Amino acid sequence: MAVHTIDEHQLDYRTIGDHSAGVTVLDSRGVTAEVTYAELDARARGAAGALLARGLVPGDRILLPLPTGTDHLTALLGCLLAGFVPCTIVVPGNPDDPASTAMRQYAAVVGVTEPAAVIAPDPATAAALAAVPGPTYLSVADLDHPALPVGELPVRRPDDPHHIQLTSGSTSAPKAAVLTCAQVTANVRAIHTALDMTPERDRVCHWLPLHHDMGFILTLSTMTKGVPLDLMPSISFLRDPLSWMRHMSGRGATITTAPPFGYRTATDRYRRTPDPDLDLSRLRQAYVGAEPIPLGVLTDFRDTFAKHGFAEETFIPCYGMAETVLAATMALDRRAAGELSWGRTKAVRLDREDLHHNNKVTDCAGDRPSLTVVACGRPLGGLTVEIRDTDGTSLPDDEIGEIHLRGDFVMAGYLGPGGVPRPLDNRTHATGDLGFTRDGDLYIVGRVKELVIVNGRNLPPYDVEQSIETHPDIDAGNSAVFSHTDDTGERVTAVVETRVRADDHDRIRREVAMLVRQSYGFNLHEVIVLKRGGIPRTTSGKRRRGQLRDHYLTGGSA
Q1: What are residue 179's phi and psi, to 5 degrees?
Q2: 163 beta partners
Q3: Going by C-beta distance under 8 Å and a sequence separation of 6 or more, which residues neighbour residue 31?
Q4: What residues contact 471, with CB distance under 8 A and at least 6 apart?
Q5: Beta pairing, strands 428-438 & 421-423
Q6: What is the pTM of this model?
Q7: What CATH architecture is 452-553?
Q8: How many whole angstroms separate alpha carbon 82 and alpha carbon 58?
Q9: What is the three-class DSSP state of 80?
Q10: How far apart are CA 44 and CA 22, in angstroms?
Q11: How far is it, in rounded angstroms, from Cα 146 to Cα 388?
């Protein structure tokens, strides 16, 4: 069934009930809830009626601190049907303690978004969150109401705000990206085209939280297309990473998505506890995106699960962010087979010294120090990708600069005081990401603000981390590097996670320091060793280097 729209500018959520499929919620063991799209539509129209009956006005912003599940989808679709502007956020972990970090972060979100209402999972949580004044506090129980007829639902205009998305990795002072109905429609349609989803053939399965842009938009894209959707709470995946594989195998999933750490974690768990009964032959698309994508993560997953039917062309590296709704580029083209090329995956091995000293992309020759970078593909939906120098000059292929994006699904702007988005200059978003283009593909090499500057050299932290993670006791993805200045100049600190015993930590510190000194010619100020899980991460698995740095500078050890 084709996507139904009110007009050419926006998706029509009023027709989700026309689809015959539905949503299944799974934990690590099996099904916990099921709802058809028709049932979800009726519940959502009831939620829309309940919210309008309370005097809320279309255009009001509503926070949804709700866990993954049918209640979340009911509240979300109810907001969209009634013309409200939802913002899905994480449920504060300790709402009864107003002084807790989670509640301080929640208060910061309320301050930035200025919501008219908050919908909590239950009355007790709503009462605890009400310690932060301003909004009307409701629970999902307050959404029980007769379903509004479709004709009584408001029609949204293309330029009306569709939803608010907090930027990934935000902590005490998040940025709130305002996405309009037209922008969301443009990106969802581009995703529909790229995924080529059909209800008859496809089933989507993912475990990304709905407060993350990847989980949120993939869920909306799936439901508006009428494709069966399997949702796992992220905590279920973390408890048993192979349950993701088992669910896709047993339920015949054809499309999934995850950041690199998801595929890496599943591979690691399988190697410890193999499951001979997995069948991934029906999986035709597995999207991967986050920080620069380690080629080794993709090749390890491919090689591990090939015997279970995972085809190499299933992986699709991509790049995107909340500020472009979700997807900006995807590697959809088939690649010629080669040493660094297979399926839709392509990488280049760059000369590390030329990259660092000359800000130039040069293919590595011989045994010179190198860095391997995966292509994130070409722009979607007419989006323009431009690489700019620090003075704003547009750069040609093979030169590194900040990535700028312009197009129909670039956000209206970040939310400002009074709920008005700060407009973008020429509808262009400066991403803060460093990258380069080659032969139409976009490559990501780091972040502008996270550069480690040592003796005049600009080093992406990912590069230093990649060297640290060659240590046999430090797994891929289990290090983080940040820098700070003091009276003596720039200081660089490395934080590593390891499984080794505490009496081996001094050895780890010495060996990590030596690795960095040998690879880059400078001394680390400090190496901090933590247990596994000690490095803070975003919901998509990205390392929160800024949070580590802030904690370190305020007196913490990491």
Answers
A1: -110, 130
A2: 179
A3: 24, 25
A4: 496, 508, 511, 512, 515
A5: unpaired
A6: 0.84
A7: 2-Layer Sandwich (3.30)
A8: 6
A9: helix
A10: 14
A11: 54
The two domains 5-177+192-233 and 452-553 share their CATH topology (first three levels equal): no
- Rounded Cα gap, residues 429 and 422, in angstroms: 12
d(CA 537, CA 450): 15
- Amino acid identity, residue 259? P
Q: Distance between CA atoms of 366 and 289, rounded to whole angstroms?
A: 30
Record the tokens describing residue 225, joined without a space.
């297309």
CA distance 533 to 541: 11
Q: Which residues lie across from 441 on neighbouring strands?
A: 438
Domains of the chain: which residue ranges? 5-177+192-233, 452-553
Contact 495, 487 (CB under 8 A): no
In three-state secondary structure terms, 399 is strand
Are residues 110 and 135 in contact, defined by beta-carbon separation less than 8 angstroms? yes
What CATH number is given for 5-177+192-233 in this structure? 3.40.50.12780
- How does 182-206 read in b/e, with b if 16+ C-beta sit within 10 Å? bbbbbbbbbbbebbebebeebbbbb
- Residue 197 in tokens: 């989803």
Structure tokens at 538: 């975003």
- Whole-number Å distance between alpha carbons of 487 and 410: 41
Neighbour tally for 239: CB within 10 Å: 12
**pLDDT string in tens for the chain (558-residue length):** 333 334 455 788 999 999 999 999 999 999 999 999 999 999 999 999 999 999 999 999 999 999 999 999 999 999 999 999 999 999 998 899 988 878 888 999 999 999 999 999 999 999 999 999 999 999 999 999 999 999 899 988 999 999 999 985 333 468 899 999 999 999 999 999 999 999 999 999 999 999 989 999 999 999 999 999 999 999 999 999 999 999 999 999 999 999 888 998 999 999 999 999 999 999 999 999 866 688 989 999 999 999 999 999 999 999 999 999 999 999 999 999 998 999 999 999 998 778 766 778 989 888 887 888 999 999 999 999 999 998 999 999 999 999 999 999 999 999 998 888 998 888 899 998 889 999 999 999 877 777 776 765 667 788 889 889 999 999 888 999 998 765 455 789 999 999 899 999 999 999 999 999 888 888 899 999 998 888 988 766 788 888 888 788 766 555
Token reading at 423: 């407009």
Longest dimension (CA), the chain: 71
Q: Quick check: 480 and 498 in contact, CB under 8 A?
A: no
Residue-level length of the chain: 558
How far is 131 from 44, CA to CA, in rounded Å? 28
Q: Which ranges of 390-460 does DSSP label H, i.e. alpha helix? A: none
Angle, alpha carbons 116-121-123 (nearest 5°)? 80
Are 116 and 59 in contact by the 8 Å Cβ rule? The answer is no
